[in-house]
Amino acid sequence: SLSIGIVGLPNVGKSTLFNALTKSGNALAANYPFATIEPNVGIVGVPDPRLQKLAEIFGSARIVPAKVEFVDIAGLVRGASEGQGRGNKFLANIRETDAICQVIRVFSDPDVTHVDGEVSPERDIETINTELILADLQTLDKALPRLQKEARFNKERKVVLDAAEAAVKILDSGTTLYSAGKQGAINLDDLRELHLLTAKPFLYVFNLDTDELADTELRARLSALVAPAEAVFLDAKLESELVELPEDEAMELLQSVGQEESGLAQLARVGFETLGLQTFLTAGPKEARAWTIRKGATAPEAAGVIHSDFQRGFIKAEVISFDDLVEAGSVAAVRAAGKARIEGKDYVMQDGDVVEFRFNV
Ligand code: GDP
Questions:
Q1: Residue 242 C-alpha to ligand 1 middle, in angstroms?
Q2: Which residues have any ligand 1 atom within 6 Å of their CB?
Q3: Could you identify which of 85, 87, 292, 355 might form a hypothetical disulfide with 77, taking C-beta atoms 3.0 to 4.6 angstroms apart as the criterion?
Q4: Which residues lie below 8 Å from residue 323, measured CB to CB, with a gap of 6+?
Q5: Which is one GO molecular function term here (predicted)?
Q6: Would residue 347 count as lying in a domain?
Q7: For 168-178, how does the pLDDT look when each residue is reduced to its tens digit (9 = 90+)?
Q8: Is the Cβ–Cβ distance between 186 and 177 less than 8 Å?
């Protein structure tokens, strides 16, 4: 499954956040009895109020949300791209993830020293991105002579060469390829074979003091630093306390600091979105469940997420939109109203489809 690598400078709250993710994952793990969770992986459920509603309609015994996996990637220091610290290990680990989550310190506790002497989100983002950009420039530097040779007699290779040369210019200007891609300045598909770090989707977690959480002006300023990438605002210390509390007490604590939802919940939602994923829903007496698929997945591919046999023997899918189901109140009522659709193997799944697959075994 897809994972998001957590990176950041020392003392920004990565471990604190990661411990909260791990605790939250342990609670979820009961839903995935056969999954082994590695010690450097933290899992968080993607909150989805539709599951509660489905469980009511179907009388489901439990709810299984979609999940997002975060991997703790230690060892980022200035000079990592030149092998400083555990720089090479760091770059190898980050290459294996599907998106990059940067934790940026905003909290100002004088008892926690900052590696560069003072707290500056802007400079920290630049420090991290510079290391990733330098690593990509090294990769491109190595690849370019080969690409130039290949492009001489081959138009398709010329496309890749052109993209690589454009990438060098973008990186030289201090911009990540992900940002440039989002702004339409480069087609990242042409660079896929090079596995460049800054071409991965980015998201940013700003670790704030509790009293900064409701500061909309500050949040807008920080968002602007990282746009078009997404930003999540949380207090890692508060998150580590929230995961220890029963749900109602956690909610009370959140509301007392002006928040409606935990930072982990927001991180899960934004992470899921950043990875380009979506869900479809199934429900029955046993469970109401959200399953993860890539945007654009077809009905047989979706069936394959539940079981490979479902994909192999796929015949058709009965699809009901969540809203129709809630309005009608039951599957039987949706069918009677003629709103249950039978879809074939070319159907592209839509967010919020409630599905039952028919298949040969
Ligand atoms: P890491 O080096 O990035 O993994 O940072 P840690 O999670 O170990 O945090 C470093 C120190 O900062 C620890 O003493 C934490 O308790 C403290 N810390 C982490 N997050 C926060 C926060 O949101 N607010 C405050 N005041 N302290 C924090």
A1: 15
A2: 8, 10-16, 107, 109, 112, 207, 235-237
A3: 85
A4: 352
A5: ribosomal large subunit binding
A6: yes
A7: 999 999 999 99
A8: yes
